[in-house]
Structure to design on (617 residues):
């Protein structure tokens, strides 16, 4: 298929259609509403389910229900709406049913604004809901990646029976660029639904899906199983991209939109004679800790750049374990840091570590 | 319970354990009416022959473990969200029979939004709403359905409607919505009312099977433990106090449902 000009939100929505999503439940919120709008015509015309729910609370519980029934299902929202869904995420994680969540972050806290932000990194990767769990969190840096990672999210959610979240920011949702859609996959037929799903206890024992385990030892067992699954995901699914790291002496770590900005920073730094490189995490949970630890032995220092007050930098520091200095630069309020402001920070790090 | 006795050739089987119930002993308090209501639902599902394509949604509340007692596919929703979860199930599995089983805290407080919008969309699900005028599971706090003056652990001087508002009449509220095809309030306080409730539950499921819209049976029930009464006194208390405030009978019978009843 050839490249076409796609807006980020519409691209994510269409990618979900191509990936075989059977149902969407959601509630409008800027800067991701175009996902809902795109699906409001695409899904019905394909005979699939689209429902605009009364709230994000209802949306996520509709997703939970459809997932229990064994359907490929998704929702999408932005920061305040994601906060409302967190109880549901926790139930879904404990029940081990697959669900895809598109999270197009906006400026916060509170109602904040509708400008791009990465202020919900902690929420997504550390504390997506109460209890011990992590969703798989995929962070695209451009529209092609947003498409590919949306498709991947469905496959990973199914494979591990867990939540897979695409963590984008408002600028990715709103901008346009050429990208290629994957071919249309056939939708899973009702009779192909997984054996654990609620499909009616015909000729078999009832299937029960719950997140309630009143006996402590039983709940601990469930937790141990969830933790084993998370370790398996961490072992198999870490993804990242590197730019000019082979001979790098200074490393930038940045994800999503600002990760893309930092590609420019690396190029400009190299023009100035600084041996800079970039590592852009694609999965922010699981985090590419091992590779960052390895690079921490090679480089003199690391600069983490984010569109928040410094969240992912904590994971970088945990990975680096003091092997080299880790500095941070970030903007908040929906501001994307530009190369002009990031480059001087890299030069400072260069001076500090030479 | 697993053994089904052979029926002698000169006898007729008139009463049996419903296939739609598991043989487990429930955790409900002695005297609680949840068991009666479970049985009525199970009998109806058996009678309609839909057990193998029914999916139940349990609430958060005393009936949180309902899936242990119903012999069919089941899931357990977050507090108040059973109608949303049921919506998700039904939309992707329109050939299934889907019902929620909810208490008054679940349906009329934390889940008010979900039940109203589910009913208003005319979701093809059935809701069994057990109104016992109290939060049973958490130990007897005031519910949205607690009567004026009723003493609970969180309304120690009795519900003061000036500060706590009035008990919610959900059957009336839901009955108003165009998407609701059949809404009724019944009770399980004596044998005749139990019989009427069984009929209502059957009709509610038939409305779903016929695709006529949302159906709900509110059931005036008791919580003798948290009311601090004996099981018998609790039944009497409900008759004397709840039924006058919550009148029994249908609050919505759509024309399509009337036609179904006449058939
Ligand atoms: C989000 C959330 N809030 C509160 C609770 C605690 N809680 C559990 S059961 C319950 C009350 C249920 O009362 P009701 O729906 O009337 O059912 P009953 O127990 O009387 O059958 C509450 C408040 C919870 N589990 N989840």
């Amino acid at each position: 298929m050839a490249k076409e000009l796609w807006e980020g939100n519409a691209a994510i929505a269409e990618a979900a259609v191509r990936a075989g999503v059977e149902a969407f439940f959601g509630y409008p919120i800027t800067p991701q509403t175009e996902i809902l709008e795109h699906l409001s015509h695409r899904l019905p015309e394909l005979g699939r389910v689209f429902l605009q729910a009364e709230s994000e609370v209802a949306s996520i519980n509709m997703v939970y229900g459809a997932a229990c029934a064994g359907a490929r299902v998704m929702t999408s929202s932005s920061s305040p709406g994601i906060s409302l869904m967190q109880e549901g995420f926790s139930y879904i994680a404990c029940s081990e049913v697959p669900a895809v969540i598109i999270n197009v972050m906006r400026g916060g806290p509170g109602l904040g604004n509708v400008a791009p932000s990465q202020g919900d990194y902690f929420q997504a990767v550390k504390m997506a809901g109460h209890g011990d769990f992590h969703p798989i969190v995929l962070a695209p840096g451009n529209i092609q990646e947003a498409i590919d990672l949306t498709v991947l999210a469905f496959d990973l959610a199914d494979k591990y029976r867990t939540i897979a979240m695409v963590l984008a920011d408002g600028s990715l949702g709103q901008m346009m660029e050429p990208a290629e859609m994957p071919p249309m996959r056939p939708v899973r037929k009702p009779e192909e639904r997984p054996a654990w799903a609620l499909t009616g206890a015909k000729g078999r024992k009832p299937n029960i899906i719950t997140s309630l385990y009143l006996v402590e030892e039983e709940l601990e067992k469930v937790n141990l199983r969830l933790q084993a699954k998370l370790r398996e995901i961490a072992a198999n699914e870490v993804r990242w991209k590197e730019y000019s790291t082979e001979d790098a002496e200074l490393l930038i770590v940045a994800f999503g939109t600002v990760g893309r900005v930092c590609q420019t920073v690396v190029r400009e730094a190299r023009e100035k004679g600084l041996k800079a490189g970039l590592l852009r995490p694609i999965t922010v949970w699981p985090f590419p800790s091992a590779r960052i630890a390895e690079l921490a032995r090679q480089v003199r220092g690391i600069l983490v750049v984010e569109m928040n007050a410094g969240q992912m930098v904590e994971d970088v520091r945990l990975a680096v374990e003091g092997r080299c200095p880790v500095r941070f630069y970030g903007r908040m309020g929906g501001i994307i840091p530009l190369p002009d402001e990031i480059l001087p920070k890299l030069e400072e790090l260069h001076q500090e570590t030479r | 319970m697993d053994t089904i006795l052979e029926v002698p050739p000169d006898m007729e089987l008139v009463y049996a354990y419903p296939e739609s119930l598991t043989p487990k002993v429930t955790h409900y308090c002695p005297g609680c009416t949840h068991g009666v209501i479970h049985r009525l639902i199970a009998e109806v599902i058996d009678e309609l022959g839909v057990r193998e394509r029914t999916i139940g949604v349990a609430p958060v509340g005393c009936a949180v473990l309902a899936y242990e007692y119903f012999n069919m596919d089941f899931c357990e929703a977050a507090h108040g969200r059973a109608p949303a979860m049921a919506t998700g199930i039904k939309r992707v599995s329109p050939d299934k029979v889907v019902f929620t089983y909810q208490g008054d805290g679940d349906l009329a407080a934390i889940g008010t939004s979900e039940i109203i919008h589910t009913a208003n969309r005319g979701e093809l699900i059935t809701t069994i709403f057990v109104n016992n005028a109290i939060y049973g599971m958490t130990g007897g706090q005031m519910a949205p359905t607690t009567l004026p003056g009723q003493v609970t652990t969180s309304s120690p001087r009795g519900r003061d409607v000036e500060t706590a508002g009035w008990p919610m009449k959900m059957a009336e509220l839901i009955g108003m919505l165009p998407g609701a095809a059949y809404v009724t309030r019944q009770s399980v306080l004596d044998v005749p009312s139990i019989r009427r409730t069984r009929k209502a539950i059957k009709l509610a499921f038939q409305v779903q099977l016929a695709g006529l819209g949302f159906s709900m049976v509110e059931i005036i029930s008791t919580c003798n433990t948290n009311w601090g009464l004996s099981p018998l006194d609790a039944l009497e208390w409900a008759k004397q106090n709840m039924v006058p405030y919550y009148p029994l009978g249908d609050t919505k019978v759509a024309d399509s449902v009337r036609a179904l009843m006449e058939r």
About this structure: Chain A is about 45% helix and 20% strand.
